[in-house]
Amino acid sequence: MTEPASAMDPRETAALEEAIEQIVAKAKEFGLDFFPMRYEICPADVIYTFGAYAMPTRFSHWSFGKLYHQMKTQYDYGLSKIYELVINSDPCYAFLLDTNTLLQNKMIAAHVLAHCDFFKNNYRFRHTNRQMVATMAAFANRVRQYEQDVGRDRVERFLDAVLAIHEHVDPFPNPKPAPAANLLRPRHSPEPISPYADLWSLDGPVPETPQAEEPPRRPGPTRDLLLFILDHAPDLTDWQRDIVSSVRGEMLYFRPQMETKIMNEGWASFWHARIMRELDLTPEESVEFARMHAAVLAPNRFHLNPYHLGFHIFEDIERRYGREKIFEVRETETDVSLIRNYLTEELCEKLDLYLYSRQGSEWRITGKGWEQVRDGILRQINNCGIPYIYAEDSDYQRRGELYLRHGYEGVELDPFYVERTLPHVHHIWQRPVHLETVEDGVTVIYTCTGPETRRSVKQ
Amino acid sequence: MAGHHFSIAREDWSLHRQGQMDQDRHLEKVREAIKNNLADIISDDSIVASDGRRLVKVPIRSLNEYRFRFNWDKQERVGQGPGNSQEGQVIARDGSPAGGAGKGAGDAAGEDLYEAIMTVDELEEILFDDLALPNLDPKRQPDINTRQYRWDDVRKHGLQSNIDKKRTLLEAVKRNRLAGRPPLHGFSRQDLRFKTWEERYEPQTSAVILAMMDTSGSMGEFEKQIARGFFFWTVRFLRTNYDNLFIHFLAHSTEAKEVTEEEFFTKVESGGTRCSSVYELALQLIAEKYPPSLYNIYAFHLSDGDNLVTDNQRSVELVRQLVEVCNLFGYGEIDAAAGNPIYYRSSTLSALYQREIHHPRFQSVVIKDRSEVYKALRTFFGPQNAQAEKGVS
Q1: In chain B, positions 18-77, which contact chain A (CB-CB < 8 Å)?
Q2: Which of A36, A57, A387 sits opposite B70 (nearest CB)?
């Protein structure tokens, strides 16, 4: 592609290099602790590709193309712009848009340094694969090979199906299997088997576990659907297993980022503000910076802006407990615990947070009480906003059918989407798939037999 | 610590094409989806009304990425105000500009359609891929040719006023340098270059559309919409095939007259229907302005089929005459009441024409709802139609 006229020339690159040196020094002074940085300056279509795939190289799928197209179109029409992209890796890759002004790039360089510090130090990231760029590139190659082996359409169809449920992984799988006695409890037992059912029996005598018995038929409930499929799906071929397993690995890699969106963006915004303050900016640059900072932190009537919320929570923590405390928070919390522990009544009021809901054809503010609002936020970000779906049985009714249960906690599933997602699960499982959920207070079961999906009330 | 270095790199990214490749695949799927839903898409009023606007949004069902998700429509969400929001305050309404944000806010249950944004041209390409001109009568005369001049040649001789200074200068420099002289060392006659032109004959094709419509009281809003959709695509399709397109809008009740496009689609008259009136007007226009030997003439008549019985015979005769001078005479009967037993339709024009007129250049179709506009287009311009007619001629 031809470079846009405003792309950086070597002189500007040199100026940026000098600025980044300063910024890195400042960041170290402040105590930020990051991996070695690799800043890459690239044109818009490349940044948007990376943005759509969330990685420099990832397997091919039309859904990424769709996202790329949307993002790029918005950029071309000047509707939105991403300035940077940063990858959790060691060394850490940060991609800057080549049409950014020098000042924009300064702010972004500072911003991504804090992201990198967060990747390196937050406990949820401790076990992420820091060589994921290479891992994903290798998987992308294997997918290409599968496309050649079995045909693009088959691979695409299977990926469609896996991507429909790829959010359902469990970052903290139960290390040891639940006691066998529980697993062998007959299906028609009066109490439903829940993942916590074993807690009830902790006080009682340890049930006798018949050692000699053959391994349990029915695996315990798990919310790691992809792992359950790997372990129990009846007819997966090798290439299909690889896809399920690799997509799961990618999801587990992204999962900590999803759990710390508010923290991570808040942390990065907090530090770009602190670092920029330390640089010698001309008055014009100061105005430009203030404008950018305000744009990034602009509140939204309908969504929480994680930059804004996170920024103010970190400022508030620093004000109340001092600088050291924020370093501790960035290490030990995730969004859920951050909101629970540090969103105060004063903050709620200051940020003008509210609950709203749809009433007829209007969206109306329905609550401003701070505890109400806090619980509303928690409900929204719990499990990254993904419903809990448990795989309960791989041999339902002894016919090899899959039984899923929605862990209903007061918010219903979107029935339209349920009906269209189940056929994807069926495509993987190749036998009937059931999903139990609650609608209007009634327990219902959706059953997908492939061509059709029925809904019935649970007896 | 020594590890805290950084680097800035600027690679050659020109080979990085994965985004475009997957985007191509996505667009391919969009095209497939559009192809499968053309009937619904082209009858969409917003596209027909978008005449001036270049981008249209095409809702596509099959490209949503389905997953298990919450029905937030029934739930409260958290938002943020400018600092003084009050409980009970309305932050957006459906349909208001702010409501656009509501879409994101909603995550509402049910369908949120993926909307492919494309130009009318792109949509056309997909639609017209399927259509063909009924090649009824390979044109009787060579189409009108126009003579054009193009200044695209250079010669050594020519009119002094047409001298090509730049080329002349280059020739002089070339000659001087070859001889080891400084570049500017005088001109010689052989350096001179002249611009000159070529004459070309370019075939120009012309077509006439006679858009005839019943505007009697029985043609309601629904019928008008169908007619508008039909003529919109017909005109666009013919335009891809002909350089010059003349369109005449002829409205009639018991009497016919030529009207503007706006009147054509908005005006409602009362009274009965006499189709022969508009056919007479059409024949008169052809006789006066468009000799069939020079023009491709496409006549379409849309009606609800409720003609005065006494006029039927006369109409049939005139249609027979029209068919002789037109490339295609298409009759479309808009029958909103189809299948509704409350409306008893004694006899309709379409039944009459089908009984009476058998001619390869006559086509008729009954349009029962919007999605059948596509069916009508395919009846008139469908590939099978074109093929069959070829066999006839």
Answers
A1: 18-27, 29, 63-77
A2: A387
Over residues A261-278, the pLDDT tens digits come to: 999 999 999 999 999 999
Confidence of residue A218 (pLDDT cuts 50, 70, 90): low
Q: What pLDDT is attached to residue A51?
A: 87
Secondary structure (H, E, C), chain B:
CCCCCEEEECCCCCCCCHHHHHHHHHHHHHHHHHHHCHHHHHCCHHHHCCCCCCEEEEEECCCCCCCCCECHHHCCEEEECCCCCCCCCEEEECCCCCHHHHHHHHCCCCCCCEEEEEEHHHHHHHHHCCCCCCCCCCCCCCCCEEEEEEEEEEECCCCHHHECHHHHHHHHHHHHHHCCCCCCCCCCHHHCCEEEEEEEEEECCEEEEEEEEECCCCCCHHHHHHHHHHHHHHHHHHHHHCCEEEEEEEEECCCEEEECHHHHHHCCCCCCCCHHHHHHHHHHHHHHHCCCCCCEEEEEEEECCCCCHHHHHHHHHHHHHHHHHCCEEEEEEECCCCCCCCCCCCCCHHHHHHHHCCCCCEEEEEECCCCHHHHHHHHHHCHHHHHHHHHHC
Q: Tens digit of pLDDT for each residue in B366-377?
A: 888 877 888 888
Of B8, B21, B117, the CB nearest to A13: B8
- Global pTM reads 0.70
| Residue A80 placed within a domain | yes
List the single residue in B with minimal CA-CA distance to A309: B80
The residue to which tokens 């079961």 are assigned: A445
Q: Residue B69: which of A98, A120, A387 has the closest Cα?
A: A387
**What's the mean pLDDT in A11-19?**
86
pLDDT in tens, B131-142: 777 654 545 445
Closest CA to B64 of A414, A139, A54, A390: A414
The answer as to whether A76 is a domain residue is: yes
Structural domains in chain A (count): 1
Q: What are phi and psi of B245, to 5 degrees?
A: -130, 125
B-chain CB neighbours of A414 within 8 Å are 69-71, 109-110
Is the domain B206-392 a CATH 3.40.50.410 member?
yes
Give the DSSP letter of residue A167: T
Q: What is the rounded CA–CA span in Å between residue A58 and residue A189?
A: 46
Residues of A whose CB is below 8 A from B21: 60, 65
Residue A108 domain boundaries: 10-120
Q: What is the complex's ipTM, to 2 decimals?
A: 0.84
Look at residue A7 in the predicted model and tell me its pLDDT. 55
Q: Domain coordinates of chain B in residue numbers?
A: 25-38+53-61+114-123, 149-200, 206-392
Q: Chain A neighbours among B 81-140 (CB < 8 Å)?
A: 81-95, 98, 101-102, 104-106, 108-111, 114, 117
Q: Which residues of B touch A98 (CB under 8 A)?
A: 10
For helices B372-381 and B383-392, the axis angle rounded to 10 degrees is 30
Q: Does any domain span residue A113?
A: yes
Residues of B in contact with A42 (CB under 8 A): 10-11, 13
Work out the minimum CA distance from A213 to partner chain B, whole angstroms: 37
- Does residue A158 form part of some domain? no
pLDDT, tens only, B64-88: 788 999 987 777 889 888 888 888 8
Residues A365, B89: C-beta atoms closer than 8 Å: yes
